[in-house]
Amino acid sequence: MRDAITSLIGTYDVAGRYFDRNAMDDLKSYFATGTARVQAAAAINSNAAAIVKQSGSQLFDELPELIRPGGNAYTTRRYAACLRDMDYYLRYATYALVAGSMDVLDERVLQGLRETYNSLGVPIGPTIQGIQIMKNIVKGQVASAGVADTTFVDEPFDYMTRELSEEDI
Ligand SMILES: CCC1=C(C)/C(=C/C2=NC(=C\c3[nH]c(/C=C4\NC(=O)[C@H](C)[C@H]4CC)c(C)c3CCC(=O)O)/C(CCC(=O)O)=C2C)NC1=O
Known about the structure:
Helix content is about 75%, strand content about 0%. By secondary structure, it is mostly helical. It has two domains: about 1-30, no CATH class; about 35-165, Phycocyanins (Globin-like), CATH 1.10.490. The radius of gyration is 18 Å and the shape is globular.
């Protein structure tokens, strides 16, 4: 698992090079956004349960067929599994935000996920909708915590969305 710094070191080490101007720019931007990323993580941590609950409620309001007989989140067990998945997405998004790297998502969350979902009939489109709902709720929380520019919060949620929706070749 890598973060922004270890990735950068890895790239330069492979080439046997000292950090150049580009590397310095990457390092500066990583450290310049550090405080905001930690603030975002803190805002998520202290509201995680509520964020997951609210995201689930909004998703089921928008797509009530999911929790009706025949829906993939119908029955208490599957409803709970769906919210648990949302909780995984939130927790790992937080790690990725702090790391400044999406590597943890590839390694711990996305690997084999689409295949698992397809084999269990978990619908990808609604899952993505849930991730996007959660993104917006998280951005609201982070803004309330005093972070002026919350654009960087999009990245892990949009990354998971993109990777999950990618078509097979
Ligand atoms: C940390 C990384 C990680 C992820 C991401 C993960 C996902 C994951 N979600 C699963 C199931 C599931 N996932 C859902 C989710 C949903 N159904 C819907 O209709 C909604 C659209 C959606 C919620 C937003 C449901 C309902 C199941 C249970 C499906 C079943 O057993 O029939 C399963 C199958 C095994 C199980 O039930 O635990 C896995 C592996 N597991 C992991 O270890």
